Amino acid sequence: MNATHRLVRLARRPAGLPTPDDFTLEQAPIPRPGVGQVLVRNAHFLVFPGLRTLIGGETRDVPLPPLHPGDTLFGPAIGEVVDGPLEKGQLVLHLQGWRDYATPATAECRQLDGTLPDPVAHLAQGSAAYGALTRLAEVQEGDTVFVTGAAGAVGTMAGQIARLLGAAQVVGSTGSPDKAQRLERELGYDATVLRGAASVDRQLAEVAPDGIDVVLDTVGGEQLTAAVHTANRGARLTLVGALDGQLSPDRAGGSAPTVLDTYRLLTRGITIAGYSGVDHPDVEAEWEARFGDWLRAGDIHFPYTPVRGMERAPGALPQLIAGRSFGAAIVEL
């Protein structure tokens, strides 16, 4: 085993949206596990947009610590135990990504047991979508569902989940014609609206003339505004992300103001709620069981964009923010 390993650190706090120069790839001694820790050789880790908030310093109400210049980035990772109390070779899920070797506490590792046919699928961002659609929006047979940010890590899963829960029509939004084609061709979306191509209001009215019953929003901004305008009486809107704020060059990732027509919310009896996994601790196990069954049956797909090699990791978050990923962005080591 080499005496050193690679890791990605925050070099400086970005001025606006992050660039690869805001991160640095460094060599460091391979850590030794302490008492109650395991040494894990990472194989894959997730690039998630919430890092924009953590490096921007606006972390109020965020259940993760801020990142300061010099800190190693972190996030969900899958790796193989090479030393410590757990069995060598055991695959585990933990939160010390962005490095070749990690030393999470044994209690912070989740041992993977084959619930999912592909271990990498444990990095799928489907739990929040599933929880929001089953606990808050409660998708019903025949519903028309609108998913904003449909080509993202959550959105690519949400449309498929909505269909499996009984939705009759699934509409998504994205900023790329190519992604729109993939959503419809590969993931079963019935229609898509293009951000920036024309009024989202007008496009929604054309593709969903009978209105929208459920909204799963990962973006906010004008897309959420338009969703309220198109929502039917009794529509259920659930929020699982705020990309409009996190991906704005004028913000630091900790706010996402949106204009909502409260008159329509009131007169149409529309409900709107934010989803947090900590409020629904039973969702994760239920989701994974159903996800595993759906994967084995070929009823659902886990699309992701691979980032091959740690040397490309410093550019992974900027590429994600620039919209160059379809589905999740995963660094493969």
List keywords for this structure.
2 domains; 15 strands; globular; Rossmann fold; 6-stranded parallel beta sheet; oxidoreductase activity, acting on the CH-CH group of donors, NAD or NADP as acceptor; oxidoreductase; GroES-like_sf; alpha/beta; 333 residues; Quinone Oxidoreductase, Chain A, domain 1; NADP-dependent oxidoreductase; 7-stranded mixed beta sheet
The biggest beta sheet is recorded as: 7 strands, mixed
Total count of helical runs of at least 4 residues: 10
Strand content: 15-25%
Q: Specify the CATH class of the largest domain.
A: Alpha Beta
CATH overall fold name of the largest domain:
Rossmann fold
Mean pLDDT: 96
Overall 3D form? globular
Radius of gyration: 20 Å
Structural class by secondary-structure content: alpha/beta
The tally of beta strands, per DSSP, is 15
CATH architecture of the largest domain: 3-Layer(aba) Sandwich
Under CATH, the homologous superfamily of the largest domain reads: NAD(P)-binding Rossmann-like Domain
Measure the end-to-end span.
15 Å
User: What order do the helices and strands follow?
Assistant: EEEHEEEEHEHEHEHEHEHHEHEHE
